[in-house]
Amino acid sequence: MLPLIVVAPMLGAAVAALLPPGRLPWLWATAVSWFMLWAAVGLAAQVMDLGVLSYWMGGWAPPIGIEYRLDPANALLALLIALLAAVVLPFAGPSLAAEVPERKSPWLYAAMLLFLAGQMGISVTGDAFNVFVFLEISSLATYTLIGLGRNRRALTASFSYLIMGTVGATFFLIGVGLLYALTGTLNMADLAARLPDVAATRTVHTAYAFIVVGVCLKLALFPLHLWLPNAYTYAPSAVTALMAATATKVAIYVLIRFIYTVFGPSFAFGEMPTVQLLVPLAIVGLLSTSVVAIGQANIKRMLAYSSVAQIGYMVLGIGMATATGLTAALLHVFNHALMKGALFLALGCIAYRFGTTQIDTFRGLGRRMPWTMAAFVAGGLSLIGVPLTVGFISKWYLVSAAIELGWWPIVAVIIVGSLLAVIYIWRVVEVAYLQPAEDTTRCEAPLALLVPTWLLVGLNFWFGIDTRVTVGIAERAATLLFSTAAGGAP
Amino acid sequence: MDTVIDVLLLAFLAICAVSILRLRDLFAMAMMFGLFSLISAGLFTTMHAPDVAFTEAAVGAGISTILILATLAQTARREQPVPTRSKWLPLAIVCVTGAALIYGTVDLPAFGDPAAPAHNHVAPYYLQESYNDIGIPNVVASILASYRGYDTLGEVVVVFSAVIGVLALLGLRARPPGIVAGPVRRLDHRAVLKVIAKLVVPVILLFALYVQFHGEYSPGGGFQAGVIFAAAIILYALVFGLDEARRVIKPQLLQRLPAIGVLIFGGVGLLTMLLGGNYLAYNALGENPQKAQQTGIILVEIGVGVTVASVMLLIYFTFAERGRGRKADEGDGGSSA
Amino acid sequence: MSFLAHYNYHLAIILAMIGLYTMISRTNLVKKVAGLNIFQVSVFILFISLGVLDGGTVPILKEGYSAYSNPLPHVLILTAIVVGVATTAVALALVVRIHEAYGTVEEDQVQAKDEEP
Asked: Predicted confidence band at A484 (pLDDT cuts at 50, 70, 90)?
């Protein structure tokens, strides 16, 4: 079952490309995504029972062959990717039909499935080079998907992302190559066992630096986030929703995996200035981008800057180097996907009706598209961190982790970040509910778009109230990641 | 002597790289780019990596250069640099990165050192056991198609993603409004080219098949074979015209081949699962493990060859087709360059 | 002494930096793609250098040879080369579209057109 969660979308993409244009590619892609969700739930349950799942590709034992390895951390991620795919793909049908010509639909949905295959492949593999290959699969699919946006600026956004993304991937490759030169292996668990012997060398330090920089480019850590605002703004709506919810999260997972499993906390936090680098950049990132978000006229762009800010929170959690901090980061990875997913889907509804997401379009939308705006408000509340939403859970854990370390200024920063979010969300709410519209006809989004949107909104509240599943997996993952530090046999 | 050749080749590469940086005439830059690829292929050969050299020559000097030329034919021939642009930031970034990398290589094992970890961990298993496990002499093929076959599946999917991207972005039929297809350019009025092309194309195709099936015993395999096959058709297209070349393989079939290749490769993996093994565990395909492995490898390499050949052709045709566009109200002069 | 033992790595790194510089500093989009390729190929040269064995030969098993260079980097770089050309193809497709949409492939001119109202 473990390989099928990646093989299904890969081969599914090939099938999608063979289908005739029309609705069939979309329906097929949706079916594949639901299969992925079913597989992910099953695998997550197995992992919570057994601890770690290992699968040998080709029947060859690692490190001779490639290993797929699932533990609570990446089981959470697999669940996340599959869940978002299963909700966004049904939305994508009507939404993308309005934004991309129908004759391109086989390639469009092939690209969506390739994106999912790539993301899932990165998440469940236990081999460092395999990460690179699937990273490039999902990246190429992303460049294609962004480039399909209607505005010609989508093309330049995609090109910039291509250049920066390829440099990041090449840096990652350099790091893996240097590690290979000193250990002779590519398997992550094997690397973890062999690195302590050579960790004091300059080569390993350099390898660490290149891997971290490469991954940080992909996860859009300030100041390497420059590709993100344009890419999110000009991509088709459903594509932005899926990307915002998954791509950067998977990159965060790769960072966590390399810091905790491959290199180990004692090396990453002890010998390398990781904390001193990640924490300040995270803070500057989250504050500066939140401020920039406030000034944006295009709401999609505003949410893009907001995403960079939220990534700052996740990196902050990682940089705290404690189990609570890591739990908070993992929780926020999951929860942010739900929040931003819902918000971008709501924007997708508005784009469907109006073709634009400029703030003027929002005038009086509270009355004209009540359900859509309510979804936006709900997502916004989650983003701010209001109790009963998932956003609150993440912020709570993050603040607890900061208090645990005695980092009171950081607590202040987190709260300021939330206040800034209040400002930029309120801007939209004010225009939508308090300003009258010129045209007051009701133009609610069709049910096909509202249902997936509200499903995500509902999950925001569900997981905000019943936190057993998410917190359970996250805490288990954090404990496991800390205990199997370099030197211990996982 | 080896060292001298190495350093000489690297020096040539540096000269090529600097000229690519500085040349304003982009067609000349494309030629230097092809040269860079070819010389690096030579360098790979001296470093005992003929499979890599093969692929780099075919892909870099072949496909990449062709695509750059096809792009230049549709865009601009000369670079228009901005004189006031600051060079300090790029220079600083590059110096920092380069310094960090050089710093990182200080503790590396010496070039060629037999005591290096890379030579003493996983690699000896491949060299010593692959003949027992799989039974073919080309160890690179064993690793590529069997031990790390899943990475190769990923690679084929990457190639597939590229053609999806190019088709989605440049499409195979539609043009921007006001643009129609211009006349096809042919070179067959040049007798020498026509004669030589007719002689050489069949040989290239045969060589592609040889590389595909002999790749287990000599450098080669699905990727190189696919690219060489495509190169033969592209040569035909350049001399006899795009329309003639498009008739070699029916367009509807050509568009489907990349997906079919991926399904062949992935399908072999599903087959082994159905037969009780892990995904892509060829041992499940038969009684004798060596024969089973070789069967799996042949099947999988066919999938690779089909996808790579069809993708390279499709990408070339798409670029060339798009480049034929000329304004609807222009005379029969065709587009420039 | 160790400097000379690593000459191959250093030269490859210098090449990579020339490629990276081309990519960052030039505004012509096609040149950026070429620079990206040079950067990548130079990294591949670095990788392959890591696998060379003194006195070894091509890793194709043959009677009479016992010392072979490491085949694993070859496999990885083969994959990486193909990934590189795939990226180049998509990048150039984007360049063609950008030229159709903006009339130029110089980055600064494209940005200027985007800033016009």
From this structure: low
Average pLDDT over residues A202-206: 89
Asked if B176 has any chain C CB less than 8 Å from its own CB, the reply is: yes
pLDDT in tens, B245-269: 888 888 889 999 999 999 999 999 9
The reply to whether B267 falls in a domain is yes
Query: Does residue A388 or residue B34 have the better pLDDT?
Result: B34
- pLDDT surpasses 70 at A147: yes
Question: Closest to C60 (Cβ–Cβ): which among B26, B138, B148?
Answer: B138
- Of C116, A272, A25, C60, the closest CA to residue B221 belongs to C60
Q: Which residue has the tokens 């222009």?
A: B330
CB contacts, 8 Å: A159 with chain C = 29, 91, 94-95, 98
Domain map (residue ranges) of chain A: 4-486
> Residue C45: its pLDDT value, please?
93
Peptide bond into A63 cis (omega under 30): yes
How far is the alpha carbon of A164 from chain C, nearest alpha carbon, in Å? Answer: 10
Domain span including residue B15 = 1-78
Give the mean pLDDT of A305-322: 91
Number of domains making up chain B: 2
Average pLDDT, chain A: 90
How far apart CA A452 and CA A342 sit, in angstroms, is: 9
Q: Are C90 and B169 in contact (CB under 8 A)?
A: yes
Asked whether the predicted pLDDT for residue A114 surpasses 70, the reply is yes
Interface test with C, best of B3, B13, B304 (most C CBs within 10 A): B13
Nearest-Cα distance to chain B for A189, in Å, is 14
**Do the Cβ atoms of B75 and C95 come within 8 Å?**
yes
Distance of CA B170 to the CA centre of its chain: 20
Q: What subunits make at least 3 CB pairs under 8 angstroms with A? A: B, C
* C43 vs B: CB within 8 A: no
Considering only alpha carbons, which residue of chain A is nearest residue C109? A156
Percent of chain B clearing pLDDT 90 (strictly above): 53
Of all residues in chain C, the one with the smallest CA distance to B158 is C83
Strand partners, A187: A127
CA-CA-CA-CA dihedral for A238, A239, A242, A243, to nearest 10: -150
Domain C4-115 fold is Helix Hairpins (1.10.287)
Quote the Cα angle for A22-A25-A30, to 5°.
125
User: What is the residue extent of each domain of chain C?
Assistant: 4-115
Contact between A147 and B168 using a beta-carbon 8 Å cutoff: yes
Q: Are residues B163 and B17 in the same domain?
A: no
Task: Give the separation between CA B101 and CA B104, rounded to whole angstroms.
Answer: 5
The H or E element containing residue A68 is: strand A67-70
Answer whether B279 sits within 8 Å of A143, measured CB to CB. Answer: no
Task: Write out the H or E segment, with its range, that includes residue B186.
Answer: none
| Subunit partners of chain B (3 or more CB pairs within 8 A) | A, C
Q: How many beta-carbon contacts under 8 Å exist across A and C? A: 70
In a domain, B128, yes or no: no
Quick one: pLDDT at residue A270?
82
Q: Which pLDDT tens digit goes with each residue over B102-119?
A: 888 888 877 777 777 878
Contacts of C2 in chain A (CB under 8 A): none
**C-alpha distance from A159 to closest chain C C-alpha (Å):** 7
The answer, yes or no, to whether ipTM is higher than 0.90 is yes
Mean pLDDT across the stretch C28-34? Answer: 94
Predicted local distance difference test score (pLDDT) of residue A443: 80
* Residue B74 in domain: yes
Nearest-10 crossing angle of helices A447-465, A323-354? 160
Higher pLDDT, A444 or B61: B61
- CA-CA-CA-CA torsion sign (B161, A230, A159, A151): positive
